[in-house]
Fold this protein.
Amino acid sequence: MDNAESNEEPLLGALERLNPRNVWPREDTDFTPWLATHPEVLAKALGIDLEITEMEHLVGPFRVDLLGRDLTFDKILIVENQLEESDHGHLGQLMTYAAGTDAATIVWITTFLREEHRQALEWLNQQTGVDTHFFGVEVEVVHIGDSLPAPLLNVIVEPNDWQKAARNATASAGSSKSAMYANFWDQFLTRLRTDRPQWTRATRAPSANWFSMSVGVPPGCSINAVFGQGGHLRTELYIDRGTVEETSELFERLVAQKTVFEKAYDRNLSWEPLENRRASRVADHRDGMIEATEEYSDYFNWLMETGDRMRRALAAVSLS
């Protein structure tokens, strides 16, 4: 017998909001370190894959709270935290840090985003290019009864990617191919949500020729699906540790375990140090063109299969 038949009311609690400073007394020593160690909370709110690489990163004589990478769009990400309502000073800091780090994904977290600052972020999203994303996020803490406090990140301002893509398409000659990439990755995302939801938190399809998925450990690594030049498709383990030296060191450790890696992958791979670039990669290639829409289903199946293989191979080696 259900509740409707028995006329019994369900037992429900009341959601209560707490002062965030009851959980994180200080922004710099409490909230920022917590967010740095729980990037998945921010990733879920923004609908992208991301990693945090540094706290209190120096920008001239100033320090941005968090520096990292937006893995979905392969851009530098910064986060400025403010455990109080937004003010002009932090808006100015946000712009200074964005310019000083060349960030393209810019996040301002506050307990209350004032209307004039909401309008400022929306204006910035309208005026900047398709690759630049400004987010305004309000943080709050809630609980029910005697439950543990739970953090909530509510996105108040986010970029209108469709609007930007349309404007960019009008202005650039390569817009038709960008639209094809966006369509392909949108369909790929739909498959991932059903068959491999753990692979990505992304909710937006990029219009670039690649789609990046975080692997978490080791930092600076991602598994990417890429349409390369010359009509080929590839799955790659992409390594970018921020400097040539750190990237090369990790790549060399991986090369030393090449036999183990390829045995777990069950196929020979292409080992590419990418001369004159900061990154390196280990890749599997096949024929594939974005224009071949009739082949999309086959491409999706291949990317899923090779993505499984790449994750299995990465788990088989020791890179800690």
Summary: The longest helix spans residues 175-195. The mean pLDDT is 88. The chain is about 40% helix and 30% strand. The chain has two domains: 15-159, 170-316.
